[in-house]
Amino acid sequence: MIAHSIPGPARRPVPKLAAALLAVTLPITTLPLPALAGDVTPASAAGVRKTVQDRAKPMLSSDPGGAAELLAGEAKKTSDPVLYIDAGEAFLAEGVAERDKAALERAVEHASIGMDIAAFQQDPRCDPAWQHLDAGEFDREMTRGKKVVEDSEKAIADLDKPVEAPPPVEEPKKEKGTPRDGRGLIAGGALATVVGVGGLAMIGAGLALSSKAQKDVDALDPSAIDFDAQFADIDKKGKTANVVAYAGIGVAAVGLGVGIALLALGVKKRKAYRAEHGADETARVHVAPALGYGYGGLTLGGRF
Question: What is the domain partition of the chain in residue ranges?
Answer without folding.
Answer: 33-160, 183-303
